[in-house]
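Posting this for the archive.
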Amino acid sequence: MASILISLIYIISLSPAIAGISNVESDIDDLQTYMVYVQKPKHGNFSKEIDLESWYHSFLPATISSNSTDDDRQSRMVHCYRHVISGFAARLTAEEVKAMETKNGFISAHVENTLRLHTTHTPNFLGLHQNSGFWKDSNLGKGVIIGVLDSGITPTHPSFSDKDMPPPPAKWRGKCEFAGGAGCNNKIIGARNFYNLSLPPIDDGGHGTHTSSTAAGTFVNGANRLGEANGTAVGMAPLAHLAMYKACDDYADKCPESSVSAALDAAIEDGVDVLSLSIGLGPDQHKEFHANAIAIATFKAVKKGIFISISAGNWGPKPFSVVNDAPWMLTVGASTTDRSIVTSVQLGNQETYDGESLLQGTGIPSEQLPLVYPVTKNASATTNCPPETLKSIDVKGKVVLCQLSADPQDVLDAGGAAMILMNNELIGDSIVAGSTVLPHARVSYTVGESIKAYINSTSSPTAALVVKGTVIGEKSAPAIVAFSSRGPSTVSPGILKPDVVGPGVNIIAAWRTAVEPITNTEYIFDIISGTSMSCPHLSGIAALLKSAHPDWSPAAIKSAIMTTADTINLEGKPILDRNHLPADLFAVGAGHVNPSKANDPGLIYDIQPNDYIPYLCGLNYTDQQVQGIVGGDVQCSKVQSIAEAELNYPSFSIRLGSARQTYNRTVTNVGPANSSYTSQIVAPEGVEITIQPSKISFTGKNQKVTYSVTFTRTKNIGASSAQANLSWIFGQYIVKSPIAISFI
């Protein structure tokens, strides 16, 4: 079966074909789950309330539809979809799928893809404080429903207590599939399992519990991980409701395509307001939107007014590695916070370098021990300490320097006392704290090189590990972590991705618990990293905005987040990347989320679902491909197609040659009724950017004004790319639009 690597994401591949059906013998051993796309049924052959299930069953081979029992037919039919696609998932052989080629209404089919899964301090770091500011103004997300598509949930965890929670909104139509409904309350108002329909949606690994509590966990005092990162754990929207849609197996790290589509289908039907998806494609597995199930399904959700927060992927720092890049999604990258869990390395020459480790307990060798770097004569400049090398070098009772990819178990088996794990040059100075079988410190590439230089400078190098614990106040935060996927988008490079970044490094949140009661909370929280962690931060923030502004569209919420994002760190300098250089727009997007500013953005760039049709036609998709995404009849020949950069997006990504380019944007006033904004442009060398008009005025709320931006290349500066910024300024309001320019 085809498979795709992702951080808990999802995809689908469509191939255009017209098909039919005949009587074909099946080899039961060759059955695979296929995603089958069909046209919507016509009323002429069905009752007014179209029986979709009967329509879908009519496509099954005659040997199934005619000669099989109801149980046989149901065992072959995996899922029938009502919202996300026109089609179904069924267990079929390749021959049976081929036999569908003469059936009227059949469009295409493919074997489903198998996908992989991709805070005590972060609320304060993001400027959220209890009983004041944006948290108070948004009523902590009260009344908003966040649907989380993940690996399940641990309903007994204290983060999901419903103390002080109101009952679900009257619109809620979801189900609770825990035994007797005992796992649901006014916090977890729905929970379903689409990964295994016969089991409750319990989280076997912890990923879904972690993401759910990050988005909307309630206040839990004394949360920590083995004593570190101690504080009050709480999600971004503590009074929002949660609905869990289990579509993934955390242990196996897979999310079947059919399960993900079914989960999204149900979430739309149930009435969620926000969808949080910490899942995605793997590297080099990009799909056109018309062949990407998540893109198709989330467009249907946006049509229903549902906001989509989704992870950018963990495949950075490679360019073009961003996934989930459709413009109707908020694509979230990962950044650091100002908290670290420090274990320092003290060398025999008294030089001390800070590293990180989650292992902060007893057994850490604080005395100076011999320090070795196991490199054989034929080894490269860095080593992952393979077993054969460790056997040839005496490491017993010593501190062993290895590359981050080394297996600590190998060093333990060889008798090593501790490890220093250094980044490679690609990862640079991004450090993600971890836990291993050996006491250790994870250090940056720069520090690792310094330690190697020390080893080579003396005949008897030594080192000790010094535990410093939780440290808050790193002024270089937020910074972009190496693993966060980078743009440009492969599918639509004219849309700047990722959109925004949020906390995704060393995030503490709820974890699965044992069945027996646990009173010590240090065992029920864990610290993990990934865009899977940054995504639910934005999901919760979107819920706060939805609560504060119930009339805002998904695009309006997205615009508010993007145009108010921070582009500087805590020390007032540009946000940095893994090499301590200013992060480019394909790493940071519009910037680092600032929830309080997003609550009052001044202006927004709104987009209605039908506005995406000219954009999709402009991608040169066929009528059938566009129809598959938007769910209605479309004839691109009758649509005035637009360039990608013409979509009313809050940011710009353009390919600029010698020809002048002009694009239009329309802003809607959601700030003071009487206001006048002045444009400000920061242009790169060799590019002239002009705004017409340069000033825009409003006399009422929700009034719209259109302006144009013209880009002219004035000279060749020998660079392949550049970046610029457009701002509209009125008093305290600074409405920012980043501009990524690729020269052609």
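The longest strand covers residues 462-472. Residues 531-548 form the longest helix (18 residues).
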